[in-house]
Amino acid sequence: MNFISKEALQRIRKEYPVGARVELTKMNDHYRTDLVPGCKGTVRFVDDILS
After folding, report:
1. Angle at the Cα of 25 (from 20 to 28), degrees rounded to 5?
2. What pLDDT is recorded for position 25?
3. Which are the contacts of 10, defined by CB distance < 8 A and separation ≥ 6?
4. Hey, which residues does 22 pair with through a beta bridge?
5. CA distance 29 to 49
6. Best CA proximity match to 37, nearest among 51, 48, 23
7. Residues 3, 26 contacting (CB under 8 angstroms)
8. Which residues contact 33 (CB under 8 A, 6 or more apart)?
9. Helix/strand number for the chain, H first, E second
10. CA nearest 46: which of 12, 22, 19, 20?
11. Helix (H) or strand (E) segment spanning residue 41
12. pTM (2 decimals)?
């Protein structure tokens, strides 16, 4: 597993706090065909694992 630096994680959590609204701009997962650019969601948490 890859992990993000503590500094980068803090920066992302500050930029995208819980409750922030986000919009999908790009998706590269052939199994999740229900998610397309333009889908909107709400941030519930930011974890420290990179894929």
Report:
1. 115
2. 97
3. none
4. 41
5. 17
6. 23
7. no
8. none
9. 1, 4
10. 12
11. strand 40-42
12. 0.73
Long-range contacts of 2-5 (CB under 8 A, 24+ apart): 2/49, 2/50, 2/51, 3/48, 3/49, 3/50, 4/48, 4/49, 4/50
Burial of 13 (0-12, 13-18, 19+ CB in 10 A): middle
Residue 51's pLDDT is: 62
User: Residue 45 has which token pair?
Assistant: 């948490």
pLDDT tens sequence across 15-46: 999 999 999 999 999 999 999 999 999 999 99
Q: In 10 A of CB 33, how many CB atoms?
A: 8
Distance CA 51, CA 42 (A): 20
The predicted structure's pLDDT at residue 22: 97
